[in-house]
Amino acid sequence: MSLLGILAEAWRTLASHRGRASMTLFGVVWGTAAVIFLTSWGAGVQTMVERGFFRSGRNLTQVWPGRVRAEFSPAVDRRFLWFTNDDVLALRRRARLPDRIAGESSAHRGISFRERMRTLDVRGVEPVLQEMRGVTIAAGRGLGPQDQLQRRRVALLGVDARTRLLGAAGGVGSWIRIEGKPFQVVGLLARVGTQLSRDSSALDEQVWVPLSTYQGFWPAPWTEETVVGRIVFRIPDRNRLLEAQHEVRAILAERLRVPPDDDEAVGMFSSVEMLNRLGSERFTAVLFVLAVTTLGIGGIGVLTLMLDAVHERRQEIGLRLALGARPRDVLRQFFLETLVITLGGGVLGVLLGVGACLVLARIPAPDLVPLPELSPRIVVVAIACMATIGLAAALAPARRAMAVDPSIALRQE
Fold first, then answer.
1. pTM
2. Higher confidence at residue 15 or residue 68?
3. Among 17, 131, 196, 313, which is least packed, fewest CB within 10 Å?
């Protein structure tokens, strides 16, 4: 039978079972669209979560000094530890896995601008930390090596810090006072947005100054060394996070003269660990399984429809076999009819799923609201699932049609 003939028979099957055919096609259309939409939405959720965690910097780990664990010193003498600039330099020389390492210190301090007075998070940062955080400069310039070397009194302001402190009256070039010490605003940070991972404050609320300037104005009262509040390092490969943490902890433990397994002496936190614990990939996989199950139910509907069609057309099948048609011709006819019905619903489902994703992706959404993230791979996977289910649904009706006995079928009314 020609392709036009197969299409005509498929249309006749659908027309003779309008109610059931409508529900069957709806199942295939909805199942195929669900595979595309839910998988795309799961990918969007995964991207949203990753973006939220990495807004403070991608693949970063923060390291802070703690105190010696109780079993290594008497409880009354659990000495506190601190990092210095030399520890940062030692890590840069010896650590192999991190590609960027920077020191940082911070505290909430009083800042004034004209008649305004605010308490904001002031961060002493090295210039390389700007790159590590991934924050762009909205106006002015960033902190440079000369600012660090010459201990310049310059500052960068986050979006919310600028709004609270400067208001509409100030901007790049304005002079502010941090605990009475004058600083010039040389740059404004672009908006970062909601962060799912942060320490004491969001980046939009911070004021950045050169680390050397910070250490000069606000030294640690318990030592004459140049103290660093925390060390931040970045790894290019997030899969080697634990290996990099062990390497950094071993180097710092050696310099602090504490055991390398003392995690109270050298504390660490990485947003990568939290992201891995959330398991957003598993969430996407669950959505995919649910969508494929929905498509499978649609495939069962096609299977039932075609099995009924074979039962109703058994005399036609018997007559064709009696007139010389080969069983494989009957097998091919019903196999292709089932595929045509499945593929017809699948094409409509693909159009519906892709259209829904494209429309929703254009809707302006609040920060950290997941939107579908459509990709060609998802469409290909949906088509492959639909084709696989169509093949499975076509096999049983085709085999039953091929097994019809012409002598029995022609005697039946």
1. 0.73
2. 68
3. 131
